[in-house]
User: Fold this.
Amino acid sequence: MWLKHQPGSKTFYPRVSRGYCLSLILLANVLGIYCDLFAPRLGLNASFDPGDIDQLVEEDIAHVSLSYHLLSTNPIFLRVEPADPNIAEVQNPKVFTLTPTNDSSSNNSLEVIKVKGVFLGRTKLTFSTANTTAENASVSRDAGGAKIVIHDTSGGGVAHDGWTALPYTYDVTVIREDGPLNTAFLVSIIVLVVLANVAMGCKVEIAVVKEILRRPLAPVVGLLSQFIIMPLLGLAASQAFRFDPGTALGLFATGCAPGGGASNAYSFLLDGDVSLSVTMTLISTLASFAFIPLWLFTIGTRVLYKDQGVRIPFENIFTSLIGLIFPVLIGLLIRWKRPHWVKTILRAVTPLMILTLIVILSVGIYANLYIFKLLRPEVLLAGAILPNCGFILGGVAALVFRQPWKRVKTIAIETGLQNTGIPIVLLQVSLPKPDSDFAIVAPIASAIFTPILLWIWFLVRFIRKKCFHKPNKPPKLSTDDVDMCDHEVEGEATLSQTPTHSPERSYGAHCPDKSDP
Assistant:
C-alpha cells in the first residue's frame, strides 16, 4: 500500500515499504554504473573550429577544422552536406573516415571541412553516419556551441540510403561583398530621398496646411490609413506567403513607410485635392519618426524575427530616420525664413534628382543584379498586393467618413503610394548582412507595381474625357436674343440684366460671331 487512510483523520499519510526503497536505490546505482562504464566507450567527441561560419563571402572558401576523439573498435564514416546547396556547398571530400583513437591517447585526430559560399543567405551543414542512429544518438554541446558529444547506444534505428542523420547542424551564413558600385547605389538612394524631402519642405505653404488642419477629419483618416491599414496589410501578406524573416521585414517596413512625394503629382493628374495631398505627405513623413520604430519594435521583433538570432538595431533606425526627416524641416525653415530662395533651390534640386535617378537605374541595377534572383513570383505578387490594396482600402475608409470625391481620391493615393526609398535606406543601413540585402527586395517589388494602377486610372480618365465626354454646346438663340446681340455688337444697346425668359443665362457670352459662316 502506497497510501493508508487513518480513521478519524482529515489527512492521508504516505506509507512506503523500506525494502522497496532500498531496491530502487540499488537498481539505480547499478544502472548508473553501467551507463558510466559503457556509454562513453562507444562515443564520439568532436569539436569544430570555428564554432560556425559567419560572414562567408560568395565564392570564397572557409576551412572548418573537425577535431575528434573516437572510442570505438570500428571506424565511423561521417558525411557532411549543406541543407541548401544553392547557398553553400561542401568541397571534396564530403565523406570522412573517422578512425578509432587509442583509449590511452590524449591527442585528437583532425580533419578539415571545406565550405564554399554560393549565394547570400543562411543554411546549415548536416551530418550523417553509417553506424550511429538518429533515434538513439545522445547529443550534447558545450557553452560555445562548437563541441558535440555523440553516444552510440546501438539501438538499431532505420537508416536512409545507408546513412543515418545525426541530430546536429552547423550554421553557415553567406553574404555579398560590397564594392564601389554598391556604395554608389546606397549613396544615390540617400541623396535622392534627402533632395526629395528638402524639395517637399520648400513647396509646403504653412498657411495652406493650417487651413486644411482647421477641419482635420481628412488628414486624420489618411494618417490612420497609412499607419494602421498599410502595416497590417504588409504583415498579412508576409505571413500569407511565409517569407523568410528578411523579406518579411522588408515588406512590413514598406507598409510602415510614409507617403511619397509623387503622390502630390498623381493627385494633380487625377483631379484630387493637391493641398490635402501635400499636407498629408508632410504629416506622415514627420509621424513616421514615431510609427516606424513602434511597429518594428512590436511586430518586427515579436512576430517576424522572434525565432532569429539577429537583433534589430533600433539605435541605427532612429539615427537613419533623423537623417531622412531632418531635410524636411530644413525645407520648411527655408520656406518660412527665406521664401525667395525656394525657386532657386527647386531649380537646382530638379536636375540633381534626375541625375540621381539615372545613376540608380544604371549603376544601381548593375550592382544589385542579385535582386532579380530574389524577385520570385510570390514576392512580386506581394509587392503588387500591398500598394493596390492600399489604394482600395484607403478610398473605402474615406468613403466611410463621408469625404468628398476629390478627397476620397487623394486619401486613396496617399495611402497606397509609399515612399519606398525610406525603408530601403533604413534597412540597408541598420540591418546586418545578409538580412539587409534580403530586406530591400520587397520595397523594390512594391515600387515596381505602385504606379501601374495609377497610370491605368489616368489613361482611362483621359480617354473617357477626350473620346466620350461631349462638350456643352451653347444653347440655341431665339430671334430676340439675336436682335439683342446685334444691338450689343453695334453699340446701340448694352445688356445690363439677364432677359426674363431665361433668368439663369447671360446672353452676351453666347452671342454668335458675325464672321462665322
About this structure: The chain has a mean pLDDT of 76. The two ends are 124 Å apart (CA to CA). The longest strand covers residues 164-175.
